[in-house]
Amino acid sequence: xxxxxxxxxxxxxxxxxxxxxxxxxxxxxxxxxxxxxxxxxxxxxxxxxxxxxxxxxxxxxxxxxxxxxxxxxxxxxxxxxxxxxxxxxxxxxxxxxxxxxxxxxxxxxxxxxxxxxxxxxxxxxxxxxxxxxxxxxxxxxxxxxxxxxxxxxxxxxxxxxxxxxxxxxxxxxxxxxxxxxxxxxxxxxxxxxxxxxxx
Length: 199
Ligand SMILES: [Fe+2]
Hints:
By secondary structure, the chain is mostly helical. Helix content is 60%, strand content 0%. Helix 2 (36-55) crosses helix 7, helix 3 (61-73) crosses helix 5 and helix 5 crosses helix 7 (121-142). Bound molecules: fe (ii) ion.
């Protein structure tokens, strides 16, 4: 099964600046995603994207919202249409005339799977956070104290264990770090500090 999108442009440039409202985004998630674990994953990635846009990129509130929405909706079609993953949510957002940069970030969050290269910083950070966020959350679930007191070295130890969160590709994470030009340790620390607050 190929998830390749076989296209390189997404959305319509005239829709730049059109974002989805909080209510509309929540409605879409509730309609499309029944799996609570997946919903939490998307909320976590949304929070990481927004926090990064604000604190590391010093972007405007409007841009922070675009980053947050790309994070929140990136896996929205995975629950019900895994064989159409990415294609379905992209088409939905195109039909809703959503900002093309949000759609492009979603389309490029797995270059090996979807065949779309991350170009903008938003694209690259979504790819960088996605898998790593999942690995760190898996680690929090096996710690009695969850995120409290979690340390970089504990995460790195799990990262090196092939059998831990075995479905999380370490190669893909390394590739994402390279493309984003960020240090693995720095991103892990950022996730440790931010992700635990998301419920
Ligand atoms: Fe994801």
